[in-house]
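Hi everyone, sorry if this is the wrong subforum. Our group has a chain we'd like a structural model of before ordering constructs, and none of us has done structure prediction before. Sequence below.
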Amino acid sequence: MRVTDEVLASQADYYRRRAGEYDVTAYGDVVAARARIARLVAEMDPSGTVLEIACGTGLWTEALAGLAESVTAIDVAPEAVAIARDRVRSNNVRFEVADVFSWATAARFDVIFFSAWLSHVPVSRFEQFWRLLRGLLAAGGRVLFVDEHVEGRDKETYLPGGDEIVERQLRDGSRYRIVKNFVDPERLVRRLRGDAVRCMCPWPRGCRDPSHGQPRKGVRRRHCTARTRRQRRRRALQSSTSGLLNRCSDNEP
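Answer:
Right subforum, don't worry. Here is the predicted structure as tokens:
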């Protein structure tokens, strides 16, 4: 089964309809999640100008705003953006309803951040997505992201004949088709290795919740790294991509 425009429209509609219940269904204890998110963002140390893709209800935006010079936060769901605007009222944050694949700006950012978004990018758009990021990064910029580890794949119900389209149901019983490509850190590094990026992908094994920054007791943190460089426009542009891939709860980002 191919990822069609209809599936992508269903995905956008799903997150629009889910906005009001997202925090509880994705994070459970929102107060505890905010503390974990703040700790995780502090570890990543975003600074300068930050672009947040798929900002959702603003939990991550809130933490980014405390460290960045400025944050531009975009999301395709106006309902989610409305919640985020109400939550984050910092003067250094600007929200915009936009689809990253069609969004245009002359700005270049020191950091691009996204949480639980890469796994919703269709395989057919993977290369296009990373080309977009390269075009939005300032020289020496960084891409930071948090997403779900591939070992969490079994919690989803994939549609017959496809390995990246799942069916999700909201509390009101409505059903939607969305893209869900759980992230395999080693495979991701291999795909990006020849693309002028320096990859750092730490994740705590045994934890599925993208807001969890620490492994459970007795769980060893693992890392995978890859470094490459190339000349671009007569100067070296080194971008770094950091991914924190966790699997600790059955919540659905």
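For your construct planning: The chain has one domain: 5-246. Residues 30-44 form the longest helix (15 residues).
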